[in-house]
Amino acid sequence: MLSVVCIGETMAMLTPTHQVPLAEATELFYGVGGAESNVAMGLAAMGVAAHWVGRVGDDGFGTRILNDLSSHDVGVSGVERDDTRATGLYVKIPASSQSDSEESSVLYYRHGSAASAMSPAMLDNPAVATLLDQAALIHLSGITAALSPDCRALLAGILALPRNGRLVSFDVNWRGALWAQEDESILRTLANQSDVVLVGADEAIAAFGTNDEAELRAMLPDPAVIVLKNAHTSAIALMRDGGRVEVPSLSVSVLEPVGAGDAFAAGYLSGMLFGLDQRSSLRRGHLSAAATLTVPGDRGPLPSTEVLEKILACSEADWAATHVAPGRIDSPVLTGALP
Q: Measured on CA atoms in the order 84, 147, 156, 2, is the torsion positive or negative?
């Protein structure tokens, strides 16, 4: 089975129930979340042997994270526990009628977290070294690069390792608050040393100063492919040899936008690992993102293999006519609700 290692920070997550403002909440839903572990869980659900590598505190939050990932068939043998630093925490505040914003917001409590102490020393951990040696793909994120100088050094160390047939993917995952006091040009260096770069059009402007396709390829000449995501419009694969493949986004009845980017990454990367062409891999990314957009959590289940294959193989006209809603995909190539 193909093996993928996703490296980064996973945090405990709290959010008020019943869509009430945080100041008035009497209960908080307790879960976990992290970009790289979300991708790992998505890949595991798609039949990939996925592993998450990171650091958590020797506390209840850390134990909850390990238990949750394990329950989603994600390997955690490369996770280090820190008995002096705490597990990071974030609070997701849902949008409400009493809020000035129509979008949810997030409060982070991660300064000095166990994950911020990730460093190149992790590469000497036998469990981590074994996972990396056996991986077909290593997945990294710009979030990790912003956590600390040691975290940046870890990513640089991973990118400097001999590939030996492995691929390294890098999701820019721009977080403006994390880069406020940092040199964001680091992202350009890390991205250019990767084989696959995923970046949203809005993120590209913030991180690289442009989302123009030609300028991005000139700025990042080395990756085999750059996937430029245009939110509700399309996703575009820009190949190193000048090739270009664009796949329109699906029509979706959106319930909750959080997690869609990670779901797209899992879908797209699984397509590449399974040997699909760029168009099919992008479609798989769109389907995975759409499934997540229609559920309240960070991950939505993909349709059955039979349904998935029909949609991946459909014509451009049938793809454009496909609509994804909670629990249902309506398409000319399908009949009825999701199994």
A: positive
- Taking the C-alpha atoms of residue 258 and residue 91, their distance in angstroms, rounded to an integer, is 13
DSSP 140-205: EEHHHHHH-HHHHHHHHHHHHS--TT-EEEEE----HHHHTTS-THHHHHHHHTSSEEEEEHHHHH
Rounded Cα distance, 10 and 37, in Å: 6
Q: Which of these, 192, 187, 162, lies nearest to 176 by C-alpha position?
A: 187
- Burial letters for 36-62: b for 16+ Cβ neighbours within 10 Å, e otherwise? bbbbbbbbbbbebbbbbbbbbbebebb
- Please report where in the chains the tokens 């040009």 appear, as a residue: 185
Question: Which position among 171, 195, 262, 298 bears the catalytic label?
Answer: 262
Is 202 noted as a catalytic residue in this protein? no
Which residues in the chain come in under a pLDDT of 50? Answer: 336-339
* pLDDT tens profile 32-57: 999 999 999 999 999 999 999 999 99
pLDDT of residue 292: 87
CA distance 270 to 42: 9
- Distance CA(34)–CA(37), nearest Å, equals 5
| DSSP H/E element including 168 | strand 167-171
How distant is the alpha carbon of residue 291 from its chain centre?
14
What is the distance, to the nearest Å, from the Cα of residue 339 to the centroid of all Cα atoms in its chain?
A: 26
Is residue 180 exposed (0-12), middle (13-18) or buried (19+ Cβ within 10 Å)?
exposed
Task: Tell me the per-residue pLDDT of 215-271, one tens digit each, with 9 for 90 and over.
Answer: 999 999 999 999 999 988 999 999 999 999 999 999 998 877 777 899 999 999 999
Q: What angle do CA 166, 207, 108 make, to 5 degrees?
A: 90
pTM listed for this prediction: 0.93
DSSP state of 318: H
Find all residues with CB under 8 Å of 182, minimum gap 6, and list them.
146
Report the residue count for the chain: 339
Q: Are 50 and 76 in contact (CB under 8 A)?
A: no
Q: Which of 2, 111, 113, 28 is nearest to 62 (CA)?
A: 113
| Residue in the block written with tokens 């820009």 | 238
